[in-house]
Amino acid sequence: MLVTEKSFIFNSVTSYPFLKTNGREVGITLASKRDLPKNSTTTQQENIFPLRVSNPVLARSVVAVLGLGFIDAGYSGDWSRIGVISRETEDLLKLAAFVIVPFCIFLILSFSKEPEP
Predict the structure, then answer these.
(1) Which of 15, 21, 69, 75 has the fewest Cβ atoms surrounding its Cβ within 10 A?
(2) How many CB atoms lie within 10 A of CB 100?
(3) What's residue 16's pLDDT?
(4) What pLDDT does 102 receive?
(5) Mutual orientation of helices 87-110 and 55-75 as an angle, nearest 10°?
(6) What is the domain partition of the chain in residue ranges?
(7) How does DSSP classify residue 114?
(8) Domain DUF7887, which positions (predicted)?
(9) Ordered DSSP codes for 24-88
(10) What is the pTM of this model?
(11) Cβ 63 vs Cβ 100: under 8 Å
(12) Which residue ranges in the chain fall short of pLDDT 50?
């Protein structure tokens, strides 16, 4: 705490912001909650992301990226060249891609299709 003429200056962090008006008045500023209509949360949620993606499409995309990741890691040679994985691990990923990629294709085709409206 520092004393300067007739005012005190606190050098500590508090939970309330202090408000000075022309150096004469010191008060505490508190935020008040706005009154919102009851259905404003539903309209906000609808307007945030209007594009809807169904769960089967999202699951197919995730499985496709997984399969492409195995192909990229096993066959590109970039990961072992920069030192992320060793040559032995890259060869193992090439072998695993023969099992994982057909399994990913099976999963993509087996996910239920969404009904047409």
Answers:
(1) 15
(2) 17
(3) 47
(4) 92
(5) 160
(6) 53-110
(7) P
(8) 53-114
(9) TEEEE---------TTHHHHHHHHH------HHHHHHHHHHHHHHHHHHHHHS-HHHHTTSS-HH
(10) 0.51
(11) no
(12) 14-16
